[in-house]
């Protein structure tokens, strides 16, 4: 059985080949929840979560929630199944603080989940915040994407530059930019770009059914790319990781 690290490396290698399940019916809903719970029980499974919708917020409409393990992506059609998606067991998983979940800028997702479905996210590790910490400790990579030995201290660890930048306002990078900067994967970037084009053409595209293949691939990339970003950035200063977990719960 592949280790968690091996699964991370395998994840996201080819977006179009990644195993996924579109959950848009009662029977497949129960099957998907059962599979996710089984993975959680078998090993210390890390999840990646992303929401989509029309003007996603407490006032908009959450229509899709994607939950992925490093092996498989589950795309839940909330527009079709409604509250049943969460009362069938997914809500419990999302609220479980002991079950770590990767998300990217979870603010709107969290807002929509709570105000529309009374689901309070727990156990979130926000990759957008992790990237800020990683960039702080690896300043050369975020600008030139090359390793410079001058940024290391004499013991070989990245210097923590927080004290040198205490009065600066940290810039937040978008998900697409992080993929380009750190993963440099043209396939993933192309999928993201195609999804953005569809959204520009029709702002209510996430309300349309059936979901197009381009939108399904977009959902897949939006979750599985988080595994690769996390795998790259997870070795940041331990104290900062603790602060990240607290900040992600806000």
TrEMBL record:
Its cellular-component GO annotations read: PET complex
Can you supply a Gene Ontology BP term from the record?
piRNA processing
Instruction: Report whether Nuclease shows up as a keyword of the record.
Output: yes
Q: Where is this region: Disordered?
A: 140-162
* GO MF annotation, one: 3'-5' exonuclease activity
Q: Name one Pfam family in it.
A: DNA_pol_A_exo1
Q: Which InterPro entries match?
A: 3'-5'_exonuclease_dom, piRNA_biogenesis_EXD1, RNaseH-like_sf, RNaseH_sf
Write out the entry's keywords from A to Z: Exonuclease, Hydrolase, Nuclease
Q: Where is the 3'-5' exonuclease domain?
A: 20-238
Compositionally biased, Polar residues: which spans?
Answer: 140-161
Q: Which domain of life is it from?
A: Eukaryota
Q: What is this protein called?
A: Exonuclease 3'-5' domain-containing protein 1
Task: Specify the species.
Answer: Stylophora pistillata
Lineage of source species: Eukaryota, Metazoa, Cnidaria, Anthozoa, Hexacorallia
């Amino acid at each position: 059985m592949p280790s968690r690290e091996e699964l991370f490396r395998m994840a996201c290698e080819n977006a179009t080949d990644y195993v996924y399940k579109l959950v848009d019916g009662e029977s497949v809903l129960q099957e998907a929840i059962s599979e996710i719970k089984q993975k959680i029980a078998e090993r210390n499974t890390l999840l990646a979560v992303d929401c989509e919708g029309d003007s996603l917020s407490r006032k908009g409409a959450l229509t899709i929630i994607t939950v992925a393990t490093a092996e498989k992506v589950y795309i839940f059609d909330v527009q079709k199944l409604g509250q049943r998606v969460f009362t069938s067991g997914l809500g419990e998983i999302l609220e479980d603080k002991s079950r770590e979940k990767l998300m990217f800028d979870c603010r709107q997702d969290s807002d929509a989940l709570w105000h529309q479905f009374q689901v309070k996210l727990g156990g979130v590790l926000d990759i957008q915040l992790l990237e800020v910490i990683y960039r702080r400790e690896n300043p050369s990579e975020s600008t030139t994407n090359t390793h410079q030995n001058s940024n290391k201290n004499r013991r070989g660890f990245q210097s923590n530059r927080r004290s040198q930048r205490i009065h600066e306002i940290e810039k937040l990078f978008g998900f697409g930019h992080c993929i380009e900067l750190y993963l440099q994967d043209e396939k993933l970037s192309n999928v993201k770009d195609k999804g953005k084009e569809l959204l520009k053409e029709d702002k209510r595209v996430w309300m349309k059914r059936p979901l197009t293949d381009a939108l399904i691939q977009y959902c897949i990339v939006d979750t599985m790319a988080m595994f690769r970003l996390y795998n790259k950035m997870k070795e940041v200063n331990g104290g900062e990781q603790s602060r990240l977990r607290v900040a992600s719960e806000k």
